[in-house]
Amino acid sequence: MAGNIVVLISGRGSNLEALLQQELDGDIVAVISNRPDAGGLEHARQHGIDAIGLDHRQYADRSHFDTELIKRIDSYSPKLVVLAGYMRLLSGSFVSRYAGRLINIHPSLLPSFTGLHTHQRALDEGVRMHGCTVHFVTAELDHGPIIIQAAVPVMPHDTAAALAARVLTQEHRIFPQAVRWFMQGRLTIDGNRVVLKNDCAAASATLIHPPLDCETAP
Ligand code: GRF
After folding, report:
1. Residue 156: is the preceding peptide bond cis (ω within 30°)?
2. Centroid of ligand 1 to alpha carbon of 14 (angstroms)
């Protein structure tokens, strides 16, 4: 049940790299960045994948930019569009065009900490668990049906950078998993819930890495 995947990025592309290293039951055929200097475009080129820099600053407004973005994406007839660190708000028409086949990775345990600076905000709130979420994209920012999450402990002396690194390791683990499930046709959206078919590993979709007692304070 293969199909094309188009990935949108804005930056370094470590999640893209994680996707490129795994069997996804589909092909990443193009990577598009709204920032032409995004490091992730180079990863794509190294893998022989179309790498397109589409500078949003060259367009009059979001609607014009998204219209061009849609044109580029649709030329690859993707089964799935993946936001892998795409840091630009999407227009309503973009989101509705790809409804049910547009997924995003967010660096928090949604619905906590939507938006930016999630790791610092998690530290400021004193939460003991933090993590990441892969979800379907809907009109409301960072609010769509959740496919998979991974939780990590917040350690006593964490900085935002240390916490971000711990979360990022889990992003690289769950994102390819979510894409693979989608490409295998195992995901059904039921209201705000995602139902995963035929996978006993689904029971372990929420994991805690590393175990809570694995680090001792200095
Ligand atoms: C990741 O933390 C992702 O969750 C967020 O943006 C960051 C992108 O990192 N949406 P990278 O470009 O994949 O390395």
Report:
1. no
2. 7
- Domains of the chain, each with CATH number or no CATH: 4-196 (3.40.50.170)
Q: Is the CB of 14 under 6 A from ligand 1?
A: yes
Q: Please list the residues that pair with 130 across neighbouring strands.
A: 152
CA of residue 106 to ligand 1 center, whole Å: 7
pTM of the model: 0.92
Residue 29 corresponds to which tokens in the numbers above?
A: 């055929």
Residues 125-165: tens digit of each pLDDT: 999 999 999 999 999 999 999 999 999 999 999 999 999 99
Q: Which ligand 1 atom sits nearest the alpha carbon of residue 171?
A: 4
Catalytic residues: 106
Helix (H) or strand (E) holding 77: none
Closest residue CA from atom 7 of ligand 1: 85
Q: Hunting for tokens 């928090």 — which residue is that?
A: 108
Take residue 52 and report the two structure tokens written for it.
């397109």
Judge if the beta carbon of residue 105 lies within 6 A of ligand 1. yes
